[in-house]
Amino acid sequence: QVQLEESGGGLVQPGGSVRLSCAASGSGVSEIYSMGWYRQIPGRMREFLGRITPSNQTLYADFAKGRFTISRDSAKNTMYLDLANLKTEDTAVYSCNVQLNDGSIWRGGQGTQVTVSS
Q1: Residue 58: exposure state from Cβ atoms within 10 A (0-12, 13-18, ≥19)
Q2: What span, in angstroms and rounded, lies between the C-alpha atoms of 48 and 91?
Q3: Cα separation, 71 vs 92, whole angstroms
Q4: Is residue 50 within 8 Å of 68, Cβ to Cβ?
Q5: Which of 49, 63, 65, 93 is the most buried (most CB within 10 A)?
Q6: What is the pLDDT of residues 61-95, one digit of tens each?
């Protein structure tokens, strides 16, 4: 089993930046293959943002390229999402999930809210 906890959200001004964290714990952390970020904008479906593999290869959705950066600290079982040059339309709940070596997927909790507003 894997438990995930997202943190780091809050109120950010347009053009600002914030770092989000996704901390993994549980008996399955040693079996984590990839970790991924998602977001859900109010009134819209949850959408894939990007992911990172054990070799630190990253894959991003088109909307995330250039302003969003995913990184990972394997020693801490933690993944990060650096959001830069934020826009009001980036206001969303950001959440994470992990895929284990056996292919199973574990989703995070309630996510962390990022509100971009002046």
Answers
A1: middle
A2: 15
A3: 20
A4: yes
A5: 49
A6: 999 999 999 999 989 999 999 999 999 999 999 99
